Amino acid sequence: MHHRHERLRDAGEYAIPFMLDALADPSREAEMPDIVRALPQIGRGAIRPLAAALQTDNVTVKAEIVTALGNIGYPQGQPHLKYVIENDSSDKLRSAAQAALRKIDPDALQVPAAELYYQLAEKYYYHAESLKPTEDVSFANVWFWDTDAGKLAREEVDGKYFNELMAMRCCEWSLKADAGYGPAIGLWIASFFKAESAGVEKMPDYFGERHADALVYATTAGVEYLHQALARAVTDKNAYVALGVVEALGTTAGEKSLLYKLGPSQPLLQSLSFNDRMVRYSAAIAIGMAGPTEAFGESTLVTTNLAEALGQSADAQGAGGNGWNAEIADSYALRAAQTMLKLASTRNEVVDLSGAQNALVAGVGDKRSEIQILSGQTLAYLDSPGAQRAIAGMALDTGNAAEVRIPAFESLATSAKLNANMLPETVVDSIYELISSDETDPALRSAAAAAYGALNLPSRKAKDLILDQAKS
Fold it and tell me: pLDDT exceeding 90 applies to what percent of the chain?
């Protein structure tokens, strides 16, 4: 008998299901004292399966688990014991849990279970050494209680994201203990993104079949919780988590929610100077698309980041941790261009786009036609000779396709209506030549004529145009 329990002890956490089955079996009552003695000797490795087994409805077994957690004496048992104290209907179990918790840390009796679970979740999130699986293998076990079978079950998961999954579980337990404990939601979201960054492809079975990805959960969470997760990611300089949360904020939140204050800081504004460009650009796009109406000190950073994103290509310099490539560069350039056009066309007074003029002027010469067109459309709203000249240059450039030149003339017309004519005579003459040539494509000619009209030039040119065609 003695050797058998020694073997169980050596088996670590794997022994727990067998020991609990034995405790629950009335025909093995004689073994009970030995098993009860052996349980705490397994040590730290026993805590995770024992904690999951607290969901048993066998009071005798539950009482032995409670006692064992107290005897093992590690702090990670505390939240589970406090949960029993707060929620169990049996007086006997509640007082056993109090005695066990007093053994580990009497002060914990004053802390709510939800908070203790949250503290444990944070330790997992930051990979506390004391929570490492005892075996040095590439996988780890997540234990849970199979209610139908009335026994423990385990799910093997990759060690790379074991801590993150356990952090999520602890947050879930925290919310079970107190549904109003908000910090657990923010940490759950951060943990999910962190698990994804560590390569979790599929959530373990206990999450259920239809488990969505982190972004789906993040976009349905309240803004307050997203800001908690973002503040943590900014402090930790975790680019993956920060990017996920910023994208979720951009999808769901209006201006008030985006510029939410968490204590003295505003996490989204801090993200504008994050050390990963994707996080910076996403933050600028989120704020720009929300169309802020109240001034804030970092508004110039919105312009700077949008301008920088517009000019991005697939080079790897300063890529940061989020895998920069051509597709991502194109996507950010396009989103930045769309954001700037929205800010310009709504005459946003908070984000001053004049600081992006050089980037937009470069944009009209971009090899991506969508970027060219959007850059021209945005420049039309800038009251600057350089902006208007750049649009005219794009419209007159025979190297550009008609699909680019026609919208460019439309942008020139907008610019002229808003800001009057700021073009040098030579450029005006070039537009005039284009309109008066029979060889010009009719659609291009008509767009050029509309722009020419909008420039509201002295009537001599208009008279020339009429007389030139009347020479017949």
Answer: 78
